[in-house]
Amino acid sequence: MGSVPVENTVRALRRLAPGASLRTPRDADVRMLARALRKVEPGTLARCCPAEVARVALADQVRALDRASTGFFGAGPPEAARLCAGPGLRAAALAWAEAVGHRALSDFLRGVPPVASADDGRRAAELTVAALLPRADRLPGEVGSPRGGAILEVRGIRVGPSGFRVDVDADPPVELTAGPTLRALWWNGLDRVTDDLGYEYLILAKDPAGTGTVRHWCHPRPAWGARVLRLESAGYRGERLRLSPAGAGTSAEVLVKAQLTVRLEA
Predict the structure, then answer these.
(1) Which listed residue, of 5, 48, 117, 131, carries a Cα 20 to 30 Å from 179's Cα?
(2) pLDDT over 90, % of the chain
(3) Angstrom distance (rounded) from CA 67 to CA 72
(4) Quick one: CA torsion of 109, 110, 112, 116, rounded to 10 degrees?
């Protein structure tokens, strides 16, 4: 199950319900980016904080190199500490960075001053958000009173000490399997959770239960005084078979922007 787009999480952070418990990033650059994301969008983060974005992107790509090099050379010191050990290792690291598209790392290995790109900014935003979010609360509690539609049906809401879980049945509508001819149809889960007070909630994790039900772990607990949660669907995806001869075997997005409601118990 895919994660929530970083733009959605940034918006939710700005309108977050009371009682949220966010983590404090250990890295100073990430803390700076967290402050910046309160005002700017992920797509403009590289223009707003180019130095911080460049350093965060480079550190992320060096970690990826560490993971990749472990498979080739076995466990050992971080690859960042061995890059200057010899021209052979540096050339191998540079070839790998170019092959996977890690431009910040390849520039670093060439001695080129880092320049943050829009892609670096988006990745830095994703890393910053991940450093802020608490762990998903998986403890069940009280169950609310759900209402759903014919396509998506809310099975219930379970409230835990610091958040809640929403379970949604997601049977694909029959009409989506006609016309473009989709198969292996699956639902992307919820895209946004708000309440009748105007607050938003973080979707920390979501995964299918293997039975047509998708579970979503949200943070924090529903705000005091909130009576209704509004749940926005993220749409369906499926394998496209006969849209055109060239389109066989590719994926197609089927937007189903349904809004469900869950009435909270007093």
Answers:
(1) 5
(2) 42
(3) 9
(4) -50
